[in-house]
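Structure (tokenized):
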């Protein structure tokens, strides 16, 4: 629900008179000892910590509904709640500015991945909501970097590991990709963040010292069978791709662990926090013509899919590039009734 605003004609807050000031409304008039009060966000007038104050008023006639423009006109910055439940300033960006901001972040994703392939960045954590193109962006750069190795039949110096990895599996991967130009990507392998042994291996592998020695401290027939030593120097790069919001992790112990890892890594948050950001990301990729590459759609058909997403946004289960592709699938298979099908499959009941 959108934020309501009221303009208080006459009221008082801690003996200070309030006259003709617009506030974000938190709770309507409530009867109190003398007259009553309304609860508002008073932070623009009284500063931080005053996000919820009671202004004494005589009755409901002491204020009237107002709007966000009147609030801004007072020099106040409106706020809203984002997908993560945090209260943040309301966006005043235009669509073009949003797409520019998001485009710039993805540009950084490409440049940093390239730098990892060149051995210039030893670790990076990429975070962002599902289905916005994190994996796609990283993989595109790895592929580019691997072209020459593939043509000349050399070993490809990067690998994307998806899903679960055991500690010994991690040790093995690190060993096989321990060269200076090697890149290991852990995509949606969040389990390694929750495992002490794995995390300690990573902390050693990504430390900022000159040599990064990793050891496996117990007997392992698996390692000896494969001829993997029980310690080696790691000189490669690692990229983590995750949906995990590091800032919102509850467990204190895990938080400390993650901080130790974060401290060793470049951290790239793709900041697609609002539904609008995500819709505009979809439009941005659709505009490149690449999103629907495999569908042989006319421009009109592409536009129809995007329009359908924008129109039905509040009802969608998920707003992501994947949702756009699912709708495109339906369009292709059921040209006569794709909207009907999409309403059932990609929307909330
Ligand atoms: N720049 C792009 N051009 C064309 N298609 C893209 C582009 N970026 C992403 N896609 C497509 O969008 C879909 C979702 O992208 P991707 O898998 O990279 O998302 P993600 O952010 O890694 O999501 P998750 O966190 O769920 O893994 C994929 O099918 C991918 O092929
Ligand atoms: Mg992914």
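Design, position by position:
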């Amino acid at each position: 629900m959108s934020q309501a605003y009221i303009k208080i004609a006459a009221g008082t807050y801690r003996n200070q008179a309030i006259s003709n000031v617009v506030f974000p409304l938190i709770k309507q008039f409530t009867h109190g000892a003398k007259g009553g009060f309304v609860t508002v966000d008073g932070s623009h007038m009284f500063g931080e910590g005053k996000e919820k104050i009671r202004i004494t008023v005589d009755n409901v006639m002491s204020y009237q509904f107002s709007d966000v423009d009147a609030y801004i006109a007072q020099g106040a910055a409106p706020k809203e709640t984002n997908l993560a439940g945090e209260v943040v300033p309301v966006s005043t960006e235009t669509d073009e500015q949003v797409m520019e901001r998001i485009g710039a972040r993805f540009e950084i994703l490409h440049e940093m991945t390239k730098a990892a392939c060149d051995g210039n960045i030893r670790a990076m954590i990429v975070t962002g909501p599902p289905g916005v193109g994190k994996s796609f962006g990283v993989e595109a750069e790895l592929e580019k970097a691997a072209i020459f190795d593939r043509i000349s039949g050399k070993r490809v110096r990067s690998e994307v590991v998806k899903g679960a990895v055991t500690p010994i599996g991690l040790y093995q991967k690190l060993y096989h990709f321990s060269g200076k130009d090697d890149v290991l990507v852990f995509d949606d392998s969040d389990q390694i963040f929750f495992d002490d042994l794995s995390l300690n291996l990573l902390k050693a592998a990504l430390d900022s010292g000159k040599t990064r020695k990793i050891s496996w401290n117990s007997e392992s027939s698996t390692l000896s069978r494969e001829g993997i030593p029980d310690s080696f120097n790691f000189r490669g790069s690692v990229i983590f791709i995750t949906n995990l919001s590091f800032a919102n992790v509850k467990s204190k112990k895990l938080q400390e662990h993650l901080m130790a890892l974060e401290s060793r890594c470049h951290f790239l948050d793709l900041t697609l926090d609002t539904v609008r950001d995500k819709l505009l990301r979809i439009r941005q990729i659709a505009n490149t013509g690449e999103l629907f590459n495999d569908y042989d759609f006319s421009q009109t058909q592409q536009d129809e899919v995007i329009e359908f997403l924008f129109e039905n946004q509040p009802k969608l289960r998920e707003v992501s590039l994947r949702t756009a592709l699912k709708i495109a699938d339906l369009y292709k298979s059921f040209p006569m009734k794709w909207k009907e099908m999409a309403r059932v499959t990609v929307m909330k009941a």
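Reviewer-requested clarification: The radius of gyration is 27 Å. The CA atoms of residues 147 and 156 lie 9 Å apart.
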